[in-house]
Give the backbone structure.
Amino acid sequence: MALSKQDIEYVAKLARIKLTSKESEELTEQLSVCLDYFEMINAIDTSNIEPTSQANNLVNVTREDVVNENMSVDDVLKNAPEHFEGFIRIPKVID
Amino acid sequence: MKKIQPVIGLEVHVQLNTRSKMFCSCSRDYFNSEPNTKVCPVCLGMPGVLPVINKKAVNLTILTGLAFDCSISPISSFARKNYPYPDLVKGYQISQFEEPLCIGGKISFMLNNEISEVSLERIHLEEDTARLIHNNSTVQDSSLMDINRSGVPLMEVVSDPDMHSADQAIGYLKKLRQTLRYIDVSDADMEKGSFRCDANISVRYEGDKTLGNKVEVKNMNSFRSIHRAIETEIERQSKMLNAGEEIVQETRGFVDAKGITVSQRSKEQAHDYRYFPEPDLPPLFNSDLTISNLKTSLKELPNIKSKRFEKQYGLLSEESELLASTKQTADNFEESVKEYQKLLKNNTEIELAKTVANWYMGDIAKQLNQISPDAELQDTQVSPRHISELLQLIHKKQITVSSAKVVLEKMFNNEGTPSNIVDQEGLGQLNNTDAIIEIILNVIKNNEKAIRDYNSGKTSALGYLVGQVMKETRGRIDANEASQLLIKKISEKK
């Protein structure tokens, strides 16, 4: 199995997701199956291939430094669960 | 006891002088804007949007790299830095990881009359985060988000752990800020948050090869507080090292009011950013042509300008450094010299520059300082040309130096050009000897005691008498001339 329960719990912590012990066990199993499947890719010999994170061969896709119209505040706040005096209001977070 | 060596590395975040944001066309001018008014789907982190790189931001970063002798990466790419905090709407920040735009380089500056050279690790480009407000009194249970700052182009300059004192760190930061302003990369204003510094600090015994555990100190918003935070943290760690205690690797915040650092994040919660290449942004290929074009556009840097001033105008190195401290001061000084030379063709540039330099470092600096510590002539109605006109009036003996100081002050109060002010205020120099002698005789008549003192050997009485003459003439007579005439007339009367 590619993953341990500790791995799952660590990833859950980083993602701020609370898991019960049962859920952790289930997910450990399910995610391990997925990872094992992707393990097949490792069978390919890539020693002569440059690493890449791009499949489309594009380079230097840039824009000129020009300002265009932005959204109205009303539209911005439409997707916010709550707002206050133009701000998006969220549960209190202190680092 | 073995001697302790502090080791300091600095990370500086600089907002770039662009018009639009890093990956979208929203205005980056968020300062003093109403919340959430400079926002679009890209910087709001909506699903399915596509960021596009701002070319100007890339060029400004490369320009900075060239100014500090960095090597510019031929291939550079962006990466996602993942962390869950609401100032990041996407859940990740687009930054650079393995392939930053600039690698290596150095910043040189003067420290205690010696050249100090601090090496750089890298300069990379990323996006600023949203602004969070935690202490609104009406909604105390909530935090408030303003997305305007999210996506503002942010350049991070990372030094090597190459500094050993708070003074050196400040010297480094001042040279960095000065250069960024010179080459128009950023207004680098700490108060406005466009120049922000975190310090990595560790201590070890001198001669040790390995570095001690480093502590990252945050929350400093002025040079003064950075200096204090570094000294405080060095002191805290040195005590622990001497007591044999373990220094925990952590992040600490500087509390300015108390002058202490406090722990913010413990080791257990150490960051795991899970960087991976940003799939939405193709890599940047920086051609030699692009780099050499940018190099050509690089303006004269402060150290080079200061050296030129020494040579061209025959100034001392401290004088040159002062006059080249900002690009505007340097430009104004040179403009005044040029204009002064036009008015006085028979004098050498070095002669004229000396006078101009003295006024810029003295009375003009004093006037500007009264406006603000960063004020330049551009913030006033006074032009470099007006300064040379004023100096020409002194040169031609149309006004005295002490009158000129009065005129200068009035120029800064928007009362007109030098000649206008002289006319309006009747400040023209008294060169008519008969009139001067009459005033002098009057002063002698009205100050019998001072004359007796002078005649009995109290030379200080002469200063008082000269002062009386200056007062009578409202400074319109040359003080040297007044003094000489007084001596002459007193001795004739004996």
